[in-house]
Structure formats: structure tokens, C-alpha cells
Amino acid sequence: MSYNIGLKSQLDARELLILEQEVRNQGKNMVVAYILWYFLGMFGGHRFYMKKTGSAVAQLILTITLIGSIITFIWWLIDAFLLHTWVKDHNRDVEGYLLNQLLSQRHFENAMNR
């Protein structure tokens, strides 16, 4: 997280606003993730949302059988504690990517103006 703070300190107000808006657009929403977890968690809905497709498909297939449903239920409960970290990590990664793009664009513009 401190990596992003150091890079963010190099941005001006306009660039910070752009960054914040783009993170909101490209990032994941915590409320949406937990709503999907609550209502569609046994079918892997929250994992599909977080782009964890392989494990989402596994949950979906396991839910079909009785024993698989028990396993998926336990998995679903564990995911309640993991989901918060997944969303924060994803959004931090998106922010880092966008920060690098903004700073690269700034360096390119500065080089063109010389």
C-alpha cells in the first residue's frame, strides 16, 4: 500500500481525481461482492465477480451433489472472511496499474514538450 502512496504524492489534483474515478470504474465494489456472496455464494457468484473462474466453476459443480453442497457450504463460510481482502487487493492492483499509466503519460508529455 505504501508503494501507491508514494506514487500518488507525485500526482496533481486533476490526476488524483482521474485516478479515483478510474479505480471506482475498474475496481470491484465491496457491497456487490458481499451481496453476490450471500445470495449466489453456493454457486460461486462472488468468485466469478472476483475473476476466480476456476474455483467458481468448482463451487458450481460441487453444489450439484449432497456431499459437494456440504463442502461448498464450508467453503462459502470461509469466503466470507476472504472476500474483503480480495476486493481490497484487486482495487490496490488496479490503482497501481493506473498510477503507472498516469505517470508514464506525464513523462511522455514532458519529453514531447522539451
Strand and helix map with partners:
Layout lengths: L1 H7 L4 H14 L3 H11 L4 H5 L3 H10 L3 H48 L1
Helix pairs in contact: 1-6, 2-6, 3-6
Estimated radius of gyration? 19 Å
Counting helices, strands and paired strands, the structural category is mainly alpha
Biggest pleated-sheet summary: none
**Which residue ranges are poorly predicted, with pLDDT under 50 across at least 5 consecutive positions?**
none
- Give the overall pLDDT as a whole number: 92
Q: How many distinct folded domains?
A: 1
Approximately how much beta-strand content do the residues carry?
Answer: under 5%
Order of helices and strands: HHHHHH
How far apart the termini lie comes to: 33 Å
Helix segment tally: 6
Helicity, as a percent range = over 70%
How many extended strands?
Answer: 0
Quick one: overall form? elongated
Please characterize this protein's 3D structure.
The chain is built from 6 helices and no strands. The protein is mainly alpha-helical and 114 residues long. The protein has one domain (29-113). Helix 3 (30-40) packs antiparallel against helix 6. 18% of the residues are buried. The mean pLDDT is 92.
